[in-house]
Structures are given as structure tokens and as C-alpha cells.
């Protein structure tokens, strides 16, 4: 159970690592130099056996837990699960959380200047695959002196990175935690991403991706993309519980011409605007494409069992009952492949009304199970 | 640990691979791991049990046996154990088939409904037995497929399942008097080691 007074990490500070040597990308290009911005929580132990890597999802970044300043209203995006006494316990683990290459929160991305032209990369930024992130994270691990992760952990797109880690660097991963994820996206899932990209690209301010050079941003398109995405991350029930048909303004009385605004409308608009003010459109396009292109087993003859046979780590897989974007069935496919590949695996489907976004919350069963599993990570109690 | 589990431990080879169907809080798998270096996996559906078993460092998969076991490859375990769950599954016969497809051998334990106390209860009161051991009313019970020792052995015969060993236990460490001679009447819990 949660302690009565929840301890927090307090103020955390991002750091930046510069990488001079180019990275060979899946697309064939050599990319670099580049920067990765990251945060760490907790202390690395003497034999460097307690390091945990957090891989972020589509709209995530390095700031996973704690606060940047006293004035911050909100903590990092996964503060519910990272911190002292929490499932990813910073009293025990040295947690590394980075902003992926191509991101827009400090790591080199489409909004960064292209050294050849001095102008923002924009649409010329190379396309990235999940494996490119994994390889760049490996370099960060080398830089931090981490030869082996006690655990690589991620939800959604982050879970894809965690699985890829287990296959690309099997000797560097002790435990792999895959939450609300999939071995590949379904057609429906790709379709939603395409709507998001289309919304951005059809905004006149998108300017073929060169909006920064023209000092504008496709705010409308990005907001619309986020609104669509946001709906898919919630469940019907979650939206009903949160908003129902409550009105924010106007009435539906007869004899009243005033148009009404539902709470859900204003919420979506707020979410869209918030997002478009803080996220780069080209990064959004790049990351949704990385999601679409990911297919864990493609290079293993489309056989997930053959893919996972490479892994040497133990797995924890978690899904949420009302998640329809990354449904429990997708997680069970991961588990079945792991069972068939004779890998150690634990799996639970958490009853939750919150849809895909449930993975960000500290739901009691989720939190307890996650914490129970983490006890065995990093040479803990057996 | 429950008596039936204490008995079946010795049938598990050290260092072998064991699948426990309905593993509860993982006490048995933990025991096998700690004392016999067994590599185990447990299936369970109760959320609290899953968390408890995972906190013991075990590999536990949330899966309902009634929805099949097709995700487990043929002969991928040395032993498949199902302790006190046979009477609670929808298709006990199919689960037995699956156990012997997945494992080299199976171990099954179940409460013997042919025990004289059950018969006496039903015979004298004319009602479905309720006891400390089987505390549920007929209309609200996880136990939907009670059987007797003789029923189970008849099913094994029909299916061509070989009974490699059997053990009849009572409520205490001591084997109940007469259970060897007349198990269907005197065994409280029946334990079978089965193969194809």
C-alpha cells in the first residue's frame, strides 16, 4: 500500500550528453553529432548493477519524475511510478530517463539546427526507427558507465523500445518490462496515426514542414492530431466518468438559441492547445512513423518466437482491460511468443476503466504488481 | 503447505520444469524452486494471488484455463500440476488432455466426492454436502465438476491415460485407515501421477 505521506523526488535537473561520432541509422544515413538530454534519479551503486532505463512513449520526454522548480504545478509524466517507495523505487534504483533522438524537449530533433545549413532540420531530419533509439540509448549507457541494465522499462512506444533492447543487446538487459504495448501496430492503429499526420500536414502553416523557418507553427493541425489521439488513449467509460454529457456553457432548454458547449469539447480543445504549444509537429510525425514501422519480428522471418529466442532477460508484461489502442490481446501475443520461446515471463491484465492512459497512473493493483515484480530486479530479495 | 502438495513434491524431479495450473499465491512453486531448483511457471486468475506469487519472485501468467492452454507448446514442460482445480474447470477432460500434451507427465489432485462423509451427508440429510473442507453451497461454488476416485479412474481409462502412481490422503499426515484398500470410500483427497 502507498505510504500515508507520499515521498517525492523533489527537484530534479536535466543534463545533456553530446555525441560527436555519427550514429548509423536504420535508414542508412550516418547521423551526428547530436545531443541527448536526460535525467537521473537515485544513485548508481558501486558495481553499477541497479541501473534502470525508462523509455518514453509518443509524446513523452526525459522529465519522467520529480519537479523542475518549486513553481512547477505538475511533476514528470511517470511520477506515479517513479520515486522513493514507488514501483521503480529510487531508494534502490539508479533511474535513467532520456528524451529520444528526434524529440523536441532538448535532444537533437527536427527543430534543431542542421549544421550544414544553419536552418532547422524540419522535414529533412532523417526518419527514425525504434532500433535507432535503442542504439542511441546504448551509447548513453556506455557514457554513463552502465554495462548492463537491471531493467529496461517502457509503456506503449516505450515498451517497443524495451523489447527491441532485449533483442539487440541481450547481454545488457536483465529484466524487460513491457506495459500496454504491442509487437506491431494494427491497421486501425496506423490509421489513427495517419489521421494525426494528415491533420498536421494539411494545416496551411505546416509549410511542408519548414514552418520554423517561416516563424510559424501548424498549431491547429497539431491540436487536432492530439485531440484524435487523446480520444483513443481513453476509454468510452473513462470519458463518460470524467465528462458525461455535462455542459460547460449554454442550456438545452427549449426556446434557447444559444449554442451549448459540452465539457468534453472544452477539455479536448484545452488538451489540443496545450499540446500544440509544447510539441514540435515534425517530431510528432517522426514518432508516429516510428510507431507504425515497428515490427518486432520482421527480421526474424516474421516469427516472434524466433525473435524472443534471442532474448536473455526475464519479462514482465502488463495490459489494461479497457485499452483499445494497445489491447490486452496485443500483450497476450507478446506473452504467448515468450512462453513458446521458453523465456521467463509474468503477465497481468489490470482491470481499469482508463483505457491506454491507465499505464501512466498508480492504480492500486497495477502499482502493487509492478512493485512486487521490481523486488526481484537488481539483485533484490529473492 | 496443504497436504496434497507435500505429497506430490517428491514426484517432481530436481531441476525440472514445472507448470502449475491454478498456482494460487505460489507457495508450492516457491517451495519447489527453493528445495528442488525447479524452474516453474504458474497460471492464476485471482489478482491478489498473482501479486503475491510475483512478489515471491515467480513467473506467473494471468490466464484462465477455461479459455484453453493452446499457447503452450507440446511437451514444453516436464510436469504439469493441477492441484485442487480439476473440480472447478469447465471441461476437466480437455484440461487433462492438454496437461499431457504440454507436459511429459501430469499430477492431479482433487477432493474425493465419494468419501464416506459426503455419502453419509447426502444419504442421511438428502442435501449436497457442505463441510469445512468444501464450504460452498451448491448454487454458489467454484466447484462445478465434483467427481469420485472411481469416476476419475474411469475417465483415465476412457481416454487412454496411464496412472503411473496414486496416493490417497486424509485430513492429517497419516494416511487414513482403509484408504489403501478402499480409496473411493476413504480418501479425502486423491492424488494422481498420470502419463500417456
From TrEMBL, chain A:
GO terms for biological process: homoserine metabolic process; methionine biosynthetic process. It is found in: Cytoplasm. Pathway: Amino-acid biosynthesis; L-methionine biosynthesis via de novo pathway; O-succinyl-L-homoserine from L-homoserine: step 1/1. Substrate binds at residues 226, 357. GO terms for cellular component: cytoplasm. Its EC number is 2.3.1.46. It catalyses: L-homoserine + succinyl-CoA = O-succinyl-L-homoserine + CoA. It comes from the Bacteria. InterPro entries: AB_hydrolase_1, AB_hydrolase_fold, HAT_MetX-like. The active site is at 156 (nucleophile), 323, 356. One of its GO terms (molecular function) is homoserine O-succinyltransferase activity. It is an enzyme of class 2 (transferase). Residues 50-360 form the AB hydrolase-1 domain. Its main location: cytoplasm. The record marks 325 as: Important for acyl-CoA specificity. Homodimer. NCBIfam families: homoserO_Ac_trn, PRK00175.1. Transfers a succinyl group from succinyl-CoA to L-homoserine, forming succinyl-L-homoserine. This is Homoserine O-succinyltransferase. It comes from Parahaliea mediterranea.
From TrEMBL, chain B:
Pfam families: MetW. It comes from the Bacteria. InterPro entries: Methionine_synth_MetW (IPR010743), SAM-dependent_MTases_sf (IPR029063). NCBIfam families: metW. This is Methionine biosynthesis protein MetW. The gene is metW.
Amino acid at each position: 500500500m502507498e505510504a500515508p505521506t507520499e515521498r517525492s523526488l523533489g527537484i530534479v535537473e536535466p543534463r545533456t550528453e553530446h555525441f560527436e561520432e555519427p550514429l548509423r541509422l536504420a535508414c542508412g544515413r550516418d547521423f551526428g553529432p547530436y545531443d541527448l538530454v536526460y535525467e537521473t534519479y537515485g544513485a548508481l551503486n558501486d558495481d553499477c548493477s541497479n541501473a534502470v532505463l525508462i523509455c518514453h512513449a509518443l509524446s513523452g520526454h526525459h522529465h519522467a519524475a520529480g519537479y523542475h522548480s518549486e513553481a512547477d504545478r505538475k511533476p514528470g509524466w511517470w511520477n506515479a511510478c517513479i520515486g522513493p517507495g514507488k514501483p521503480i523505487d529510487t531508494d534502490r534504483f539508479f533511474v535513467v530517463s532520456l528524451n529520444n533522438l528526434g524529440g523536441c524537449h532538448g535532444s537533437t530533433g527536427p527543430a534543431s539546427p542542421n549544421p550544414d545549413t544553419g536552418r532547422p532540420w524540419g522535414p529533412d531530419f532523417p526518419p527514425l526507427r525504434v532500433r535507432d533509439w535503442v542504439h542511441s540509448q546504448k551509447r548513453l549507457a556506455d557514457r554513463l558507465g552502465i554495462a548492463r541494465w537491471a531493467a529496461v522499462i517502457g509503456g506503449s512506444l516505450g515498451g517497443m523500445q524495451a523489447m527491441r533492447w532485449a533483442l539487440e543487446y541481450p547481454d545488457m538487459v536483465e529484466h524487460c518490462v513491457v506495459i500496454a504495448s504491442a509487437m506491431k501496430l494494427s491497421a486501425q492503429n496506423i490509421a489513427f496515426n495517419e489521421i494525426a499526420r494528415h491533420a498536421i500536414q494539411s494545416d496551411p502553416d505546416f509549410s511542408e514542414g519548414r514552418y520554423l523557418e517561416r516563424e510559424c507553427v501548424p498549431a491547429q493541425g497539431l491540436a487536432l492530431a492530439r485531440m484524435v489521439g487523446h480520444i483513443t488513449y481513453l476509454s468510452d467509460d473513462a470519458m463518460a466518468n470524467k465528462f458525461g454529457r455535462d455542459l460547460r456553457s449554454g442550456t438545452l432548454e427549449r426556446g434557447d438559441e444559444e449554442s451549448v458547449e459540452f465539457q468534453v469539447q472544452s477539455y479536448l480543445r484545452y488538451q489540443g492547445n496545450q499540446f500544440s504549444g509544447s510539441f514540435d509537429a515534425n517530431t510528432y510525425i517522426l514518432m508516429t512513423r516510428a510507431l507504425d514501422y515497428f515490427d518486432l519480428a520482421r527480421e526474424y522471418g516474421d516469427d516472434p518466437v524466433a525473435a524472443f529466442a534471442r532474448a536473455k532477460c526475464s519479462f514482465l508484461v502488463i495490459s489494461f482491460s479497457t485499452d483499445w489502442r494497445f489491447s490486452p490481446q496485443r500483450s497476450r501475443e507478446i506473452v504467448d511468443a515468450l512462453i513458446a520461446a521458453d523465456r521467463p515471463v509474468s503477465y497481468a491484465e489490470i482491470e481499469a476503466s482508463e483505457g491506454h492512459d491507465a499505464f501512466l497512473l498508480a492504480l492500486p493493483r497495477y502499482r502493487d504488481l509492478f512493485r512486487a515484480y521490481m523486488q526481484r530486479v537488481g539483485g533484490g530479495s529473492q | 503447505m496443504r497436504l496434497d502438495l507435500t505429497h506430490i513434491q517428491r514426484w517432481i524431479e530436481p531441476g525440472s520444469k514445472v507448470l502449475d495450473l491454478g498456482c494460487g499465491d505460489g507457495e508450492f512453486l516457491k517451495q519447489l524452486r527453493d528445495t528442488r531448483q525447479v524452474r516453474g511457471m504458474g497460471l492464476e486468475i485471482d489478482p491478489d494471488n498473482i501479486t503475491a506469487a510475483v512478489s515471491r519472485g515467480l513467473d506467473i501468467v494471468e490466464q484462465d484455463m477455461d479459455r484453453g492452454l493452446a499457447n503452450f507448446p507440446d511437451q514444453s514442460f516436464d510436469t504439469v500440476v493441477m492441484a485442487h482445480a480439476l473440480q472447478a474447470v469447465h471441461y476437466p477432460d480437455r484440461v487433462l488432455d492438454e496437461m499431457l500434451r504440454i507436459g511429459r507427465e501430469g499430477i492431479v489432485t482433487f477432493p474425493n466426492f465419494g468419501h464416506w462423509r459426503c455419502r453419509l451427508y447426502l444419504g442421511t440429510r438428502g442435501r449436497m454436502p457442505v463441510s469445512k473442507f468444501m464450504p460452498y453451497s451448491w448454487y454458489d461454488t467454484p466447484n462445478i465438476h465434483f467427481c469420485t476416485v472411481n469416476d476419475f479412474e474411469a475417465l483415465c481409462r476412457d481416454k487412454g491415460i496411464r496412472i503411473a502412481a496414486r496416493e490417497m490422503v486424509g485430513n492429517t499426515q497419516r494416511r487414513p485407515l482403509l484408504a489403501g484398500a478402499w480409496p473411493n470410500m476413504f480418501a479425502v483427497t486423491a492424488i494422481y501421477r498420470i502419463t500417456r
